[in-house]
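Example 3.2
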Amino acid sequence: MADLAEEVLKAAKTIAVVGLSRDPAKAAHSVPAAMQAAGFRVIPVHPSADELLGEKVYRRLTDIPEPVDIVDVFRPSREAPGVAEQAVAIGAKTLWLQQGIVSPEARRIAEAGGLNYVEDRCIAVVRALGRITR
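Structure, written as tokens:
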């Protein structure tokens, strides 16, 4: 039986990536690129870039003008609660903290806001192991 991470990924189409990197050598760039290549709509969230992975970049989650299924976080754990608050504010379905990122406070905020919560898991690994594509 699939776990929560697989279930939310199977149901998702749109992934907003907070902290998508400009550097192709970093996981914060290669992981979202892999998700995009698998057919997911990736929306970059970055404080200063204008375009990443061929997509318009937004400064904050709350600037995104379309529904978001998953908010995927590539930022330090200490920033996760603020991202969780924005994810709740935009009505995202899931807050996903990438591998190595853990935040009990972000979990509390997300779950209190009705979001699914995944932490310390790589979204691209879950996608590959579950053979999930769009």
